[in-house]
C-alpha cells in the first residue's frame, strides 16, 4: 500500500521536524512494507530531502496547489486574533498539501496519509483497514470513537477518486477567502466536508502517547508536544496547560509518554534522557495549572449558588415580615 507524507522543508536543518521525519521514515522502513511517497516543497540540499533519499522514498517535488490563497483566507490579523501569533505561510502550505494527494495519485483506489510526527510499530496492510467512501480517520484527543465530534487528520485512509470532490470544495472556500468553522486550517476544512461521511479507523492506527501503553498500537502519533521539541515548535497552540490536559484525570497514562518517547529517541539514535526530564517537569506544571483552573471554576460556581440561596432567603424573610 502507498503511504504519502507531505512537507515543506524547515528553515533550519536543526528543526525538530527533521528529527520527527527521521523517526517516521526509519520506523516505516523497519516495521512496515509500505511504499513511501513524499510531496516535498524545498531545496535538494535540505537534510529533509537527504532523509527522504536515504530511506528510498519516492519524492514528488510539489508546492501546494492553492498556496496563493492562504494569506487571503488567513491574513495576519486573523492569525493573531485566533492563534495568538503569526504562522509562516510556507508552514501552512505544508499542512494543506495533503489535500493535493487525491489529484496526484492516479493508480490506487486507496492510499494512506500520515503526518511526519508518527512512529510505525507494526505493519500496515490495506486488507486490515475499513474501505471508506471518502476517508477513514480516528479521534483527536479522546478514545471514545462513537461520541467524537471531530476527527484528527494526522492519519487518513483516503478513497482517492471520491476525495477529489471534497478537496475541490475546500479549494473553492480558499479561493473565496472563507475560513473553516473551527479555525484549525486544513484539518478543520476536512472535518467540515467529511465528518458526517467519515469511516472510523481503529484507535491503534492513530494512538496517542497520552493514552498509555498499548501493545496493539500500530502507529504512534506524537500529537501535542513533539519529542526533542518545545512548545514553540510543537504546533499552533501548544503550551503547558494543553499538555496538562492530555493526562489530567488519567495520570496513570503518563507511562505512555515515557514509553513511546524512549522508543522515539532509540530510532533517532540519541540519548533523550535530558529532554524527557525537562518534559516531565513541564507535564507536572501543566497538571497543576489545570487543577488550579478547575478549582477556580468550581469556586465561582459555589459563589453563584451561594448568591442565589442568599437571595432566596432574603426574599423569604421579606415575605415573612410582610405577613407579620
Give a verbal description of the structure.
- By secondary structure, the protein is an alpha/beta fold.
- The chain has 2 domains: 2-206, Spore Coat Polysaccharide Biosynthesis Protein SpsA, Chain A (Alpha-Beta Complex), CATH 3.90.550.10; 240-324, no CATH class.
- Helix content is 45%, strand content 14%.
- The chain is built from 11 helices and 9 strands.
- It has helices spanning 16-31, 47-54, 70-73, 76-83, 89-96, 101-104, 160-175, 185-194, 240-245, 254-268, 273-323; strands at 2-8, 35-41, 58-61, 110-114, 118-120, 135-139, 151-159, 199-200, 219-221.
- The strands form 2 sheets. The protein has a 7-stranded mixed sheet with strand order 3-2-1-4-7-6-8, sandwiched between helices.
- Helix 1 links the parallel strand 1 (2-8) and strand 2 (35-41).
So what's the CATH class of the largest domain? Alpha Beta
Largest sheet: 7 strands, mixed
- In helices, the fraction of residues equals 40-55%
Annotation, overall tally of beta strands:
9
What fraction strand?
Answer: 5-15%
Number of domains: 2
Task: Enumerate how many helices there are, as a single number.
Answer: 11
As laid out across the biggest beta sheet, the strand order is 3-2-1-4-7-6-8
Amino acid at each position: 500500500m502507498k503511504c504519502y507524507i507531505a512537507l515543506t522543508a524547515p528553515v533550519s536543518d536543526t528543526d525538530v521536524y527533521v528529527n520527527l521525519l527521521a523517526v517516521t521514515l526509519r520506523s516505516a522502513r523497519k516495521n512496515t512494507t509500505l511504499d513511501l511517497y513524499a510531496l516535498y516543497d524545498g531545496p535538494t540540499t535540505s537534510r529533509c530531502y537527504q532523509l527522504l533519499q536515504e530511506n528510498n522514498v519516492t519524492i514528488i517535488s510539489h508546492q501546494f496547489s492553492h498556496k496563493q490563497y492562504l494569506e487571503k483566507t488567513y491574513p495576519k490579523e486573523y492569525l493573531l486574533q485566533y492563534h495568538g501569533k503569526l504562522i509562516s505561510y510556507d508552514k501552512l502550505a505544508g499542512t494543506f498539501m495533503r489535500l493535493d494527494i487525491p489529484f496526484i495519485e492516479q493508480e490506487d483506489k486507496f492510499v494512506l496519509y500520515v503526518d511526519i510526527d508518527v512512529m510505525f510499530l507494526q505493519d500496515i496492510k490495506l486488507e486490515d483497514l475499513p474501505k471508506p467512501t471518502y476517508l477513514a480517520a480516528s479521534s483527536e484527543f479522546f478514545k471514545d470513537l462513537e461520541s467524537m465530534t471531530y476527527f484528527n487528520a494526522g492519519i487518513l485512509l483516503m478513497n482517492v477518486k471520491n476525495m477529489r470532490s471534497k478537496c475541490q470544495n475546500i479549494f473553492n472556500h480558499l479561493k473565496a477567502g472563507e475560513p473553516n468553522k473551527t479555525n484549525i486550517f486544513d484539518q478543520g476544512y476536512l472535518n467540515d466536508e467529511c465528518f458526517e461521511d467519515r469511516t472510523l479507523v481503529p484507535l491503534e492506527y492513530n494512538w496517542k502517547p497520552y493514552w498509555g501503553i498499548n501493545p496493539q498500537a500500530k502507529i504512534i502519533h506524537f500529537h501535542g508536544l513533539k519529542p526533542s521539541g518545545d512548545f514553540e515548535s510543537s504546533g499552533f497552540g501548544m503550551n503547558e496547560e494543553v499538555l496538562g490536559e492530555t493526562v489530567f484525570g488519567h495520570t496513570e497514562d503518563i507511562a505512555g509518554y515515557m514509553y513511546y518517547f524512549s522508543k522515539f529517541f532509540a530510532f533517532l539514535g540519541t540519548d533523550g534522557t535530558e529532554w524527557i526530564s525537562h518534559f516531565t517537569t513541564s507535564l507536572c506544571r501543566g497538571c497543576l495549572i489545570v487543577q488550579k483552573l478547575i478549582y477556580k471554576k468550581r469556586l465561582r460556581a459555589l459563589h453563584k449558588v451561594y448568591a442565589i440561596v442568599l437571595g432566596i432567603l432574603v426574599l423569604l424573610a421579606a415575605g415573612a415580615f410582610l405577613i407579620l
